[in-house]
Amino acid sequence: LAQSARRAGQGSAAGVQAFKQGVLFDNVADYQQAIKCYKHFLESCLEKGDAVGEALACNSIGVDYQLLGSDYLKQAIQYHTKHLEVADVP
Hints:
Blueprint: H1 2-7, H2 11-27, H3 31-48, H4 51-68, H5 73-86
């Protein structure tokens, strides 16, 4: 769905579809696939300047890297740090 929306020139819809696909992969514990989807969503958010979406994507990617285990903690920390940088936290 995300690729179809992108081809149709609907980049925003493609980003949202990628996020939704990521959630579906999370629900079946396919974290590697979920990360790929969230990275597409992140790319879409960066292109649009969507800071809220960027924070959501970084958090989702960070959580999935955590769930993959200790071999991925460095990547998890990187994405959680990026989330903290862009999050709307006082």
